[in-house]
Each structure stands twice: as C-alpha cells, then as structure tokens.
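[User] At your convenience, examine this fold.
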Amino acid sequence: MNSKHFSKLLLIMASVALFSGCASPSATTPSSGTSPTASPAMGTDAKKLKDVRVQLAFLMQSIDAPLVVAINKGYFAEQGLNVTFERGFGNSDTISKLGTGKFDLAFSDMYNALDFNEKNPGDKIIAVAITQNGAPFSIISLKEKGINSPKDLTGKKLGAPAGDGPRKLFPLFAKEVGIDPASVEWTTMEPKLRETFLMQGQVDAISGFSTSALPALLKGGKKMEDINIFYYNENGLDFYGNAILVKEAFAKQNPDVVKAFTAAYIKGLQDVLKDPTAGLDAVLAADQSKLMNREAEKVRMQIALERLFITPEAEKLGLGSVDPKRLEKSIEQTVVGFKLKGKPTAADIYTDEFLPVKDQRTIPAKSDRKPLT
C-alpha cells in the first residue's frame, strides 16, 4: 500500500471513531426528549435492563418528581428496569394509549379507567398503586365573581373541556352541596384555555384539577388571596387521585416488571417526601424545554404534599394502598357521574398484589421531612 492510500485510510478510521464517540447509548436515550438521562445503578449492566415505556397524565410537572428521582438515583435500574417516559395529553388520552399497548404503564386516574374498561372490555386496565391518596378535583373561581360558597354557583357560567372528570362529576357535587346541576351553564374549551377563560371573564368559574389550575392562575398574575377553591373531597366526593395503571394482560405476563416498577417508584416518592425541594429541582433540571416556572411548580408541589401525598389514610395504610370502603363509594359515584351501565367493584379496578410490603412503603416520619423551599 503506498503512503497516499495509507494516509487516506487513517483519515477514514479517525472519522469513524469520532462520530462513534458522539452517539448516545440506546439504553439511556430519553424517550421523545422528555425523560432525564440517567445512568444505571452502580454495577448494573445497562444492556441487561428491561425497557419499560411510561406515559404521564400530562406535561411533566413537579408532582412527577418521584418518577424523575427514581430514575436519577438508579432505583429502577436496581430493579432491572430501564424506564423512559413521555408526556401525556390528559387522563383520558393517556388511558386510551395505555389500552392500545403503546405504553407499558401510565399515570392516570381509576375513574376514567373504569369508563374505558366498560367500552373496551378486551383491553382492561387496572391500578396497581395509588400515587395520589387525595384527588385535586375542584371548582375554582376568582373572588371578584362573588362566588364565596358552592351554593353561589347557581345561575353562573362554568367552563371546562368536555371530557373533564370534575365536570362529569359536577351533578353529584351539586347534589352534595344542595344546588340544581341544571342551574349552571357550561362553556366548553380546550384544556390549555381553561384558566384564560376564567381570567378574561368569559366564565365565572372552572372545574378541573387544582394542581393544574392554581399554578396557571398564579403564573397569569393572580394571587392566592384572589382565588376561591372548592374541593370535591371536602364536599362529599372523597375520590382518589392518580394511580399507576397497567393493562391487566401486561401485568399477568410481566408481574415481576410491575412489582419492580412499583417498588422503585414508591422509593422515589419517599425521597421526595423527605426532601421536596430536591425533588422539585430534579424535575426542573430534567425539563429540556427550560420553560418551567419554578414558583408555579413549587405551588403545585405544595398542593401535592398537603392534599395528595401526605394524608392520614396514607400514613395509616402506607403509600400506594386504598381503603376498600372509600374506593367502593367513589366507584358507585363514578357509575352515576360517568353514566356507566355496569356495576364495577373495587376488585375490578384495583389490586395490591404488586405493592411492596407495608414496611417498605411507609410515609417518612415528620421529623425526617424537610419543608419545601
């Protein structure tokens, strides 16, 4: 080989080596640019990890910190899993995609899952752990509207997307607070416009999740003292919030995967309860769009700590579990509110067989929990 050809060969080899070094290993590539890049646990071979695809209920938010922390700290990798996640587009949409098999697990609510199951009995979805012991279902108004109690909603104009869960349940809420559900007028809009309609005065109040509405209103210039909020679980509708959902067929075929995922997630949740500021910072660092507002996400996290994560029931039963009587009652209310034809029971939508033992899912002692800053 002459020196000219030898020099050309060296140049090609160097180029190949350079571009090979720039490629990201497939085992840790974020899904759709939303999952934080995380190294496997110490001593874990990434090639041996089981890939698990997860979808959120909506955009990544501070309340997704347990998932992000569990990925960052290698808790999933320790369980043999390589977890990637994508944003969701609302609870109903997330459940629908889970039912098609596009994702292995998802975060959404049991009540919309009951609706899905009735329409798609061959793709039944179940909850394997409750991530939010309380639901953020609420009616929200601005004090300038003069709606100082639920009874003041009579004759008012309410706004929400057509598929909004709290909107579907409003007739039950109205019955509990003593007003005629037909006495209000509903305006339908896209989810992203809900708070805008309220601030612009196009509606007098909105239904939705407080964890979504309050941060948006504060980001829009309102203050907490400007807002009135009426929680469903303080007015006769004591529902659970989001849960880890999985297709029943997937759980039967991959029980170890579901158990491993649940265990790692709960470990991440316990870390967030111990140090919520670190959890908030982890989510902000994982936000590749860099559009997250820290103060808004801090409000969302504080709501979750006070109303969704840490409750007397969760402290008694442990993270992920349910009170069967409470769940049964909320299912009965869902049947009426969602106009379901069947009569599902708690066993039709929830199982604790994939949960870690109770000692491994306790809420950290108050003395071990740092305040959110």
Summary: The longest strand covers residues 50-55.
